[in-house]
Amino acid sequence: TAFLDHLTGQVKGDDVVVFHFSGYGSQVQVPKSSTNISETTTMGVVNSLVPIDGTISNKGSPVVNDILEETLILLGRSLPTNKQTLILDTSYISNGEKLQGNFRVRSCANLIAKNSSPEEIAFQEKLLLRLNANATGKSLNRRKKSIPGIILKAVDNNQLATEGQWNGFNVGLFTYALTQYLWEMTSPT
Question: pTM score > 0.85 for this model?
């Protein structure tokens, strides 16, 4: 909602947009569909970003309240600017260990068996319909992973991102390195 309310209403064609997520990731099951969500017969596994209220109960089986990476990409594609950078300091898989040496792994140790919330899937469908309505004579591919801009990720889909503690605060290694680099490359003024 904040993405749509704040960015979609304010971003112009030449604006620069930076979205930075530094936290935990996971993988969840979502319905696969050829063209319509109601025709779903099988499940697929996708990457997700885990918010603070990540798991909700749903009549006996847990449903995750994660933000699907695909939703984030669709949100990026809905903006009118090509100057976008999505920074994702997270990992999606778990090796079952919370620690890698002195660092904490940045993924939830849950099983892939958790299902995404139906509301998240419905929201994706609304975004896709909006994007198709705005497209000039061409249908957009739901699974297309591109945005007008770049995506910077801490790790590939099958690797582990970690976080450490510096001066009393926890931070992802990718975020820490990126921040240090930007401070060094930016003039003090």
Answer: no
* Residues 96, 100, 106, 112, Cα dihedral to 10°: -20
Burial code (b: 16+ CB inside 10 Å, e: under 16) for 45-63 equals ebbbbbeeebeeeeeeeeb
Question: Considering only CA atoms, which of 123, 119, 116, 97 is closest in space to residue 108?
Answer: 97
Distances (CA, A) of 158 to 7, 35, 47, 115, 134: 31, 28, 11, 20, 34
Residue 179, class by beta-carbon neighbours within 10 Å (0-12 exposed, 13-18 middle, 19+ buried)?
middle
At 75 the three-state DSSP class reads helix
Q: Tens of pLDDT along 15-74?
A: 999 999 998 888 888 877 634 444 444 668 888 888 876 665 566 666 678 888 989 999
What is the rounded CA–CA span in Å between residue 13 and residue 115? 36
Stretch (H or E) spanning 86? strand 83-89
Per DSSP, the residues of 101-149 read: TTEEESB----TTPEEPHHHHHHHHHHHHHHHHHSSS-PPPTT----SE
Instruction: Give SS3 for 52.
Output: coil
